[in-house]
Structure formats: C-alpha cells, structure tokens
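Example 3.2
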Amino acid sequence: MKWDIVQDKYDISRAAFLDWVSCGRPRTGVVFEHMSRLRARFKLALRYCRQHEDQLKADACAKSLDLGDSNKFWRGVKRTSNGRATKYANCVADVSGDENIAEM
C-alpha cells in the first residue's frame, strides 16, 4: 500500500547512496549533494505516508473494490480492522463481567 509510493524513491536513493560510498564517502561535491537530495526526497515521502496512513489504506480498499476484486477488498478490510476486537459484548446495560451479565 504505502510502500508503492515510497519504493521507487527508496530504490533511487539507495543507488545514489551506493554511488556515494563507491566514491569514498565525500562530504562535499556533486555526488554528496545528489545523494543528500535524493535521501531527503525519500524521507519526505516516507513521512507523508506515515502521516496519511489511514487515508492511504482507505484509498487502497476503495481501489480494490472499484476493480471488482472482492476477495482483495475483504482481505484489506480484515487486515485493517482491529484484530483485538471481540464479537461478544462485554458490557450490557452498564453491567460488565461474565458473571454479572449472566445474573442480570
């Protein structure tokens, strides 16, 4: 999902980093500036994805539904839903606990 947006920037940034390393890790110059600029673009894209994670997940679900892939849609819903949620009520009429609800 979010990695689709960042993956290409990561690949380019990684290649620039490896070029910088092969040049002897200079602290100034064209290679350093190029590597720094591409790394900053990658970090900006990653920060955007982290800040808009919920929206990106919703967009991915909507896209899978729009494409007519219902299996992928429901897998996405299951993955993003709260896995700790239970299907049983734990509070009924302001009474909580298994014993108290049963006695009610």
